Amino acid sequence: MSDWTDGYVAEIDYTHGFYRELTPAHLRFCLLSRGLRAPEEDAGVSYCELGFGQGVTLNIVAATHPLASVWGTDFNPSHAAAARQLSLDGGTANTAFGDDSFEEFLAREDLPTFDFIVLHGIYSWISAENRAVIGRFLRRRLKVGGVVYISYNTLPGWAAIMPLRALMIDHAKAERAGMTERVDKALAFARTLAEGKAGYFTANPAVAPRLEKMATMSRNYLAHEYFNRDWTPLYHADVVRELTAAKLSFAASAHVTDLIDVVALSAPGREMLAAVNDPLFRETLRDYIVNQQFRRDIFTRGALRLTPLEQIEGLRAQRLALIVPRATIPEKATFPIGTTDLKPEIYGPFFDRLDKGPITLADLAAAEPALAPLPLATLHQAALVAISQGWVAPCPEAAGEGARRKATKRFNAAVLERARRSADLTVLASPVLGGGLGVDRIQQLFLLARAEKHPDPASFVWGILSSQGQRLVKEGKPLEDVDQNMAELRLRAQTFTDSFLPLYDRLGIV
């Protein structure tokens, strides 16, 4: 009898994560930034996620694209059931979830062809045979001109850490406890070796800090990240070669930092890249320069290059939205090579105008006299920097936003109701973004209090938390006293009202 898990951890469920890079708006923006054409924004778009985990991203894509056809599979029936329940609760009727293996999904005859096929956190964690099945699926089910997002652990960034993972998984195999306990014991064993100055740790000084960071992470995440049977960091060039049979070509990185070498790389690094003519080797060389550990690649099937005028028109029409309170944006941006000062004469008016609501680059320049004389390339770079830092997000066109608002309103109502009993889902759908926005449980409960017209949001939230034996945590310590919890909730409620509620309103969340 075959093992349906195929070596993948299924004993405990994966985390509830939303990944903005998987959304059509983000993928289109990255392709536009590279001068490539993406599938049009129309009602008939078709979207598929392979290995959707808890189905959070897939459901949010469905809620923010109510006329799209959204499909997905995850071999773990617990994941598929959770995704389907979220769909039922949130009213995303345009979804089709299954628990097929990749091979079973490939064999199905009822699937459409897709404009977008996405895989996040899958490709490095499956066997070579399953990667080949995925390649055949992409060949069969991706439309001409379609887009594939695929993320994976990569080399050389993982080279020093690979022995640590091998050590922990061998230790876990020797244990007979449950998965969570095996993860804890493997971490403790590795830390004992590190503290004992074992030669591997002294020869690889970057490993001990990674181990310390792992100790703070969710055990569910660690089990799926490190303890599968199959775990293969891949060179970018090898992934490109594997996907050639599916008629796919590498188009761009979905990690926006990778699109702005002028601020993300040192001058010597940029000079080395500029001297390389072969695009495949140039991308591999870039991974060595930054010691890349994780890639987020966009592939296309028959991508068309935009003319310079088409790219200019596309960038001018690109809509952007601020996704954090204006006051929280610092005066510096952080990149792998260090921090970069943001020119106040550019970024000041740039963020000030975005703080008033979503706007296209063309209208942004027209609305701000200080930005009007600037070349479009400068505004584009400012957008890239802001997106790379998580302050701004690209948005779909305003057309169709009314339909998106109706769909996201029902979905968000279900998420807020869920927040009464659980903190697992910390994202809400935005019709403006065409995707999700991280919103923690406390703020979700403030939104729920507002929806129910409760006169005292802090008391409302405390009633829910205290009834479940829960307390707030401040500076790493739980607040046990009722008065302390209420005081902290009132502070958070004021911050929510002053800074976050206007933001959520601009993004169509309230």
TrEMBL record:
Alphabetically ordered keywords of this record: Plasmid
A Pfam family it matches: MethyTransf_Reg
Residues of the Methyltransferase regulatory domain: 219-301
Boundaries of every Methyltransferase type domain copy: 49-148
Origin superkingdom: Bacteria
Name assigned to this protein: Uncharacterized protein
Biological source species: Rhodospirillum rubrum (strain ATCC 11170 / ATH 1.1.1 / DSM 467 / LMG 4362 / NCIMB 8255 / S1)
